[in-house]
Specification:
By secondary structure, the chain is of the alpha+beta class. 40% of the residues lie in helices and 8% in strands. The radius of gyration is 28 Å and the shape is elongated.
């Protein structure tokens, strides 16, 4: 069973719907602290996508862009692909974020949450896709249970990103500066006698 398969979806080795959440690749990459990471969806916010690409290219280090890619295997007409991307963001399934380690050097929070709080019910997004809707047709009670779990997971993940994105930045680290009192009590450098500094005549 793939760790990238979303909770509640029917897939190979998950004919009864996947009972566990998918891995959060964005969060995994962010945990390194030295990688530029962004989660984007062109159909939901094209300007955020372009901004993420530009920042990733400018970053002096590894960059990872996690892009929403609609797929024929999801089971819907791909002419509606951009609309489905927008729905994924609006329901909170695909929060748009950018994590830029360079902001730490400026004393800012490196995580920026670019999407708003969920405003669309999750079922309005997932049941547009056959990989979810087929379970509702074959096992409606199981589908209802998994939908509840998926809604809890989406809400929990949104709260996490919202909390992390709201944290204040920290002043960049700098070399310690001695206080006036410490400077006054510190021993003065040893005086050098004139004799020690005068050049000595070399004996022949």
């Amino acid at each position: 069973m793939s760790k990238a398969t979303p909770l509640g979806a029917v897939a190979k080795f998950a004919f009864g719907g996947k009972p566990r959440p998918k891995k959060d690749l964005t969060l995994m990459a962010m945990s390194y602290g030295s990688v530029y990471v962004a989660r984007v969806a062109f159909g939901a916010n094209d300007m955020q996508t372009i901004k993420a690409f530009l920042e990733a290219e400018a970053y002096n280090g590894p960059s990872l862009l996690v892009c929403y890619s609609h797929c024929i295997a999801h089971g819907y007409d791909l002419i509606h692909g951009l609309e489905q991307q927008k729905a994924a963001v609006q329901c909170g399934y695909w929060p748009l974020v950018r994590y830029n380690p360079d902001l730490v050097k400026q004393g800012k929070n490196p995580l920026q949450l670019d999407s708003k709080a969920p405003s669309l019910p999750l079922d309005k997004y997932i049941y547009n896709e056959t990989r979810f809707s087929m379970l509702r047709q074959s096992q409606p009670e199981v589908a209802k249970h998994l939908l509840g779990l998926a809604e809890e997971e989406v809400a929990k993940r949104w709260r996490f990103y919202d909390y992390m994105g709201a944290q204040p930045g920290h002043a960049p680290e700098s070399a310690p500066v001695a206080s006036p009192a410490a400077a006054a009590t510190s021993p003065a450098p040893a005086a050098t006698s004139p004799a020690a500094t005068e050049p000595k005549e070399e004996k022949k």
